[in-house]
Amino acid sequence: MLIHRVARTGTVALLSVAALAGCRSAPDVAAYVGDERITVAELEAAVRERLADEDVAAWAEGREDELTRRVLTGLVEQEVHAAAAERADLRVTDDEVSRRIDQLLVRDDPDAVYQQLAQQGIARADVRETIRQQLLRRELAGREGEAGALEESALRARYDEVRPGLAQVEFGYATVPDQAGADALLAAITADPGRYAELVAPFQGAYTLPELEARPAEDVPPSLAEQLQAAAPGTGFTVAVEETGGVVVAFLAGTVYPTFEEVRPRLEEEAGGQVDAAGAELVDEVRADLDVTVNPRYGVLEENRVEPGEGGVVDLLEEAGASADE
């Protein structure tokens, strides 16, 4: 009887494996995306690739399961977007991805940014794929006439709309030892503002701006803010400030506004969010048609992310065996 019982239990287990394979849960597959399979071997290789970065590895220490879920989420999204691109006959090239990254990092040190991301468990490959998917969503939105917010005319119209709120105060200040020197310096700057840097050069220090600067009103030093606000463009004032050890000469050049090109990255980011949302809806339509299935060994798919789940393939097999013994 024992032999028959063991044989029967083994048969049930094998049948359970076959059933799992039939319902898109083969043990060697981490996820199904339509007709495509992300194998366990592919997932493990992708995880190893990320752990080769010592900063990612440091982040992942003690969070190996979280990293695996994150990588699997990324692989699933990659397949979903690839399917969307294929259906729309679209292709985002590596050069397009590189150009977009260069645009985003134009004011930053790329190596420093990548290191900061790696310290959060995000590898360079993840960054590039994220940008690729963003560009694809925008292309999809454009195909459907939903990318108007990113057109030149729309960006310029938005700039005209927000420009009044971008006003900056252009000013300078220098600290001199006494009132007589302060009066003389203010008179010279007022007479020829273009010589400001030259005129204040002899008074360089912690309380002197070497060149005129443009800042938002809230960034003006509090000790000067009220009088600068009341001053007429092209004029200035002097004020003794104890902590500077002298008399401060302040000069108001006027109110300036950042140019369209200076503000453009922010305008594109704002507009891009709207376009991305429209593109994401189109990708979601493809996703729903693909019947994405994640191996329960790794978790469950919730809101397009692989999250921790209860049980797994091993548990399912154990439950099947237990049922056979009853």
Q: What topology, given as strand order, has the largest sheet?
A: 4-3-6-5
Helical run tally: 13
Q: Classify the beta-strand content into a percent band.
A: 5-15%
Oligomer designation: single chain
Per CATH, what is the topology of the largest domain? Triger factor/SurA peptide-binding fold
The run of helices and strands is: HEEHHHHHHHEHHEHEEHEEEH
Main sheet summary: 4 strands, antiparallel
Helix content: 55-70%
Structural notes for this entry:
The protein has 326 residues and is an alpha+beta fold. It has two domains: 28-153 and 263-294, Triger factor/SurA peptide-binding fold (Orthogonal Bundle), CATH 1.10.4030; 168-256, Chitinase A, domain 3 (Roll). The chain is built from 13 helices and nine strands. It has helices at 2-22, 40-51, 54-60, 64-88, 94-104, 110-118, 124-143, 152-162, 179-191, 196-200, 222-230, 260-290, 313-325, and strands spanning 29-33, 36-39, 168-176, 213-215, 235-241, 246-256, 293-294, 300-302, 305-307. The strands form three sheets. The protein has a four-stranded antiparallel β-sheet, with helices on both faces. The protein has a three-stranded antiparallel β-sheet with strand order 2-1-7. Strand 5 and strand 6 form a beta hairpin. It is elongated. The two termini are 14 Å apart.
